[in-house]
Amino acid sequence: MYLNFSDSSPSQFLAGGLFSIFKPRTFTSKKRVTYLLDIGFFELLVIAIIGLLVVGPEKLPKYIAQGIKTLRNVRDMATKAKDDIVESAGIKEMDLKKFTDLDSKKLADNVFEDKPESKPAQQKKFDQDAT
Fold this sequence. Notes:
Structural class: mainly alpha
Number of helices: 5
Helix content: 40-55%
Mean pLDDT: 70
Strand content: under 5%
Shape: elongated
Distance between the termini: 85 Å
């Protein structure tokens, strides 16, 4: 796989091509946008520069493509493993949603709710002839 940099600069390639493989997740607070494994833009830029120096510009696109392929395979294996565990444990998706939709107020109401008292267990009479 050969990438042509003639139409774009390497920085445009890194900004568009490399970062598009990582799905950015944004937070509602004022945190920065983070990428894979909580690595930000500048950390990825440093990794790309080191990779460029170590590998060279000719082989770098090949290694990036191999890295992307490996990441996808690992992600697919993790998803399949999770699905197998859920299936073997007999957990249905609805059961999982119950745990994610827990409401703390409802839980507190259920804990402090007066429940009918249970009856004490009846004691059986000891029969000496039974032994």
